[in-house]
Sequence to fold (472 residues):
Amino acid sequence: MRKILSFLAAALFFVGCQENMLEETYAPKYSAPLIISVDNSTRSFNEELKWSWEENDHLVGYQNAGEKMRNTLTLENGNDFVCNNFEYSSQEAADFHFFYAQEDGDHALAAYQDGTWRPVYVGTASATTLDAIDRVELSHLSSALEVRVWQGDKDNHTERKVTAATLSSDNDFVGKWSVADDLTYTQSYEGKEIRLTGLDTSTVVFNMPVNEEGFAADEFTLHLKYGNTTYSYSLPALTFEAGKRTIMNIIIQTSVSLPKGTTINNLIPDEATSVKFVVNSNEKSDVNLGSAYKPDASIYLVVKNDTEVEFHTPADKIMANADCAMMFADKKQLTSIDLTNLDTSNVTTMTGMFSGCPGLTSLDLSNFDTSKVTDMFEMFYYCTGLTSLDVSNFDTANVTDMQYMFYNCTGLTSLDLRSFDFRSLSIYGSRYYILSNIGNDSPNPTTITITNDRGFSTAYIGSGNYEIVYVD
Fold:
């Protein structure tokens, strides 16, 4: 009697291809005629996720994918795929697998991911025998998770291309047919992940098994790679219905924001000797300063050797909080602060930011944007170890308080303040002792350069070993 397998009318899947997957063959033990009816399904991919079959289409079928016995089924009368001698290895209960064979002979579950879909149909009849069935409805991968990737924020974002994408789980969600059978390079061992590589697209599509009961929140982790950076997300609860696609928008924040300065200060151990801010990093720790509902906004505190403090983020930029008061204050063992990746364009107060850090001998502040800063009170107070300090790029037009800004910077040999504008200093007392006790530890007087007509007054200075040079 002819055995007939009937495909469910379905949406088909789309993943990339792998060549020469079926080089090894096995001698068949059994054979029987087989007809697969496709009168209710189509092949061409359209908005309704239907396919229309073409005259030269054919399927490839196996019993137990690991044995790789190739059976070709050709289309007859536009409705039936026929194989007069379907070869198989066992009459015991086993899985049957059917792949749509593309023109180049590949049979992988794969997708061309830059906008041109190349669907591949897969049907699976689990734990049955060919002799025992007259008609079987195949369960198959007929749902999809489409991930659209953006960069920016919720209100202002653009497409972000990725080079690789992985959907992983602790559970076997893809299906046992993918176990070490080399039929698909996108599915890993025991079906616990789907990996897509060699991408250059902002839209990634994963084949998903039908699961109308749903997957639990955090059951899946999505990894998106761009360059050397991988962004990871725990996904919410999801369900997948045959013929339907779940669309998920992911916005990769290109910048993340630090908490206020006193919070950072409390995170830095007193014995810390260095602090560094690292972007485009995959390094993590148990201390996450980012937003819990936006994993890409994470900032991880990493402490190495008990003294090296680093703040890591996968984002491209770290934004300093508007309030940077006391950010590194009184960390007396600090000898190095790398501020290269810290964006200060939104900062309004830098009160005591580096005060009481005698171990610092220099600071690179060349990237500091101080255009919004209004308060620099005691910013470098008692930084007695500083021998050089370049603040030539500082914009102080909006600063109203500079009292004790450089107080007791006794080691400075020169200080260029030509960019400083003192005309906004309006708070009572804010103008005094800005330069007190500068250069007391220097063998020669410290040269301080001031631009004329910027509101500077000798009333702002106190005692110290320095000389002021005025320039136009």
The mean pLDDT is 76. Helices lie at 261-267. The radius of gyration is 33 Å.
